[in-house]
Amino acid sequence: MGSRKKVLITGAAGFLGSHLCDRFIHEGFHVIGMDNLITGDLKNIDHLFKLEQFEFYHHDVSKFVSIPGELDYIMHFASPASPIDYLKIPIQTLKVSSLGTHNLLGLAKAKKARILVASTSEVYGDPLVHPQTEDYWGNVNPIGPRGVYDEAKRFQEAITMAYHTYHGVETRIVRIFNTYGPRMRLNDGRVLPAFIGQALRGEDLTIFGDGSQTRSFCYVDDLVEGIYRLLMSECVDPVNIGNPDEITIGNFAEEIIKLTGTNQKVIYHPLPKDDPKQRQPDITKAREILKWEPKINRAEGLRLTYESFKKLSTEELNKKEHRFS
Ligand code: UDP
C-alpha cells in the first residue's frame, strides 16, 4: 500500500463502479471497493481480488460508513440505476443517494478526502430544454415511479453543494447520461441489455411506446475518462458527461437487429409512466473545462458490448430475476 493514493468506490461491484475500480487500479491507486450486492455482482470485480492494492467491503452505505486510516478520494456510485429496479426497490433507491450520500460526505469531511458523486441526466426529468445544459433545473414528477431515483439524486446534489459551501469539503458532481458497455446486467431492464438479450435468446425486441423517444448513448470507457478528468479538475459545479449522438429508440432497435443478425421483429409495449421523450447532453462545459469528448462511436461501442454479451452462458442469458434483499 505505502505511498499509493487511496480511493473508496461505492457500488464497486456494479457496472460503472467496477469499471472505475479498473481505472483507478490502472492509475496506481489503492482501491477500496464497497457494495451491498443488491444489484451489483462480484463477478464484475473477481479479477481484482488477487491484487494487494484492492480490498472489498460488503456494506450498505445508507448505514454508517467506517474506513480505517487515510483516504484521498471517494467515488459514490452505489445506486440501482434501472427504472425497473426503482419500482422493485424504491426505498433502497431513495436511501442510497440520500442517507448514503450524507454518510459519505461525513466520511469525506472526517478524512479530508475529495468526493465525487454520481448524479444523472434524470435530474432534468422529462426535459423541456433540449439539449440539456447544466443550468437547466429540470422537469421531474416527485411522486411518479421514477421520482424515487430522480429526487434522491437531486437531494444528493443539494447536500453535496451544502457540504462544500458549509464545511469546505472538496466535492465534484457528474451528471451521467445513458451509458452502456460490458458488465451491464443483461436482465436489468434497460434498453440496450434488453434488446441484445432478446436478440441472443431469439425473442422479439420490445419497444416501449412508438419508439420515437430519443436517448444518447455513451460507451463506458469514454464515460470513465470524463469522470476521471472531472475528479482531478477544480470544477465544483455539476458537469454533464455523455455522448451527444442522439437516436430514437425505434432506430436503435434497427441497429441492434443489424448488429446481431437476428431474424426477430420488433413488438410494441405501452410506454412506462413519465418516460422522458427526449434526452441529449450538451457537453460544451466538459469540452471546455475538462478538454473531454467521447471518442468511441456507437457502431464500435455496440460491437464491443455485443462481443462481451455473446460470451455469457445459457444460464446467465436466461436468468430473469436478480436478488433483491
Ligand atoms: N425501452 C424500450 N424497450 C425496452 C426497454 C426500454 O423501448 O425493452 C425504452 C424506454 O421506455 C426508454 C428508453 O428505451 O424510452 C431507454 O430506457 P432505459 O430504461 O434504458 O433508460 P432511461 O433512459 O429511460 O432511464
Average pLDDT score: 96
Rounded to the nearest angstrom, the distance between the terminal CA atoms is 34 Å
User: How many individual helices?
Assistant: 10
The SS-based structural class is: alpha/beta
Q: From N to C, what is the helix and strand string? A: EHEEEHHEHEEHEEEHEEHEHHH
According to CATH, the fold-level topology of the largest domain is Rossmann fold
**Order of strands side by side in the largest beta sheet?**
3-2-1-4-5-6-11
Heteromolecules bound: uridine-5'-diphosphate
List the uncertain runs.
none
CATH class of the largest domain: Alpha Beta
Question: Can you tell me the number of structural domains?
Answer: 2
Q: How would you characterize this protein structure?
A:
A 7-stranded parallel β-sheet has the order 3-2-1-4-5-6-11, sandwiched between helices. The two termini are 34 Å apart. The model has no long low-confidence stretch (mean pLDDT 96). It is globular. The protein has helices at residues 15-26, 83-88, 90-111, 147-167, 191-201, 220-232, 249-260, 284-290, 298-310, 314-318, and strands at 6-10, 30-35, 54-58, 73-76, 114-120, 171-176, 179-180, 205-208, 214-216, 218-219, 239-241, 246-248, 266-269. By secondary structure, the chain is α/β, with parallel strands linked by helices. The chain contains 10 helices and 13 strands. The protein folds into 2 domains: 6-179 and 217-241, Rossmann fold (3-Layer(aba) Sandwich); 186-216 and 245-276 and 296-317, UDP-galactose 4-epimerase, domain 1 (Alpha-Beta Complex), CATH 3.90.25.10. Uridine-5'-diphosphate (UDP) binds at residues 82-83, 178, 190-191, 194, 206-208, 213, 215, 249, 271-272, 275.
